[in-house]
Amino acid sequence: MIKKAINLKETSFTQAINISAQWCKEWGEDLLSEEVLADRVAELIKTKNGLRGFFAYALSDQNCYLLDKLPFSFVFKLQEAGNDVVEIVIKNLIMSSAQIIVHESDNNLEYKSNSENISERCKSILRVLETKSVTKNINQIMNDLDNLGNSFDNSKKYNEKQKEFIKHQILDIAQ
Known about the structure:
- The protein is mostly helical.
- Helices cover 71% and strands 0% of the residues.
- The protein is globular and about 45 Å long.
- The chain starts with 12 loop residues before the first helix and ends with a helix.
- The model has no long low-confidence stretch (mean pLDDT 92).
């Protein structure tokens, strides 16, 4: 069997999601060691598409337990990746926290549960990353919260209930 090598530098967002899903599945089935998975993810997240695709998959898939367990070798690679990881995790924390309020208002308990899971995973990651970078990014978000919104162009601003909940979630990181 010939395996085709993947050029991670040219990976699309969708390909990064699919690659991440495969690797997490293999890790979950003990077919891939924590160290090998950490090395692979470190290479994938060097690109914007890889970073976005990995976190889109790993944060949202209920059956991917990597971000729940946070093996040391994996955390080390996330720390090495630096501020890009901190930024994307904080953005996902903000978005998922705001969505918890939306889903609660809509009485959509399944979506609310999914958003809560993403939010908890984000907080867990932020607790183990480099403190100065996390603090700097969080302070920036707190200062800009009135200008942020839950649309790509920030045209639909977060309401007061969402902003208060986001602040609560951010303060919970220190716990």
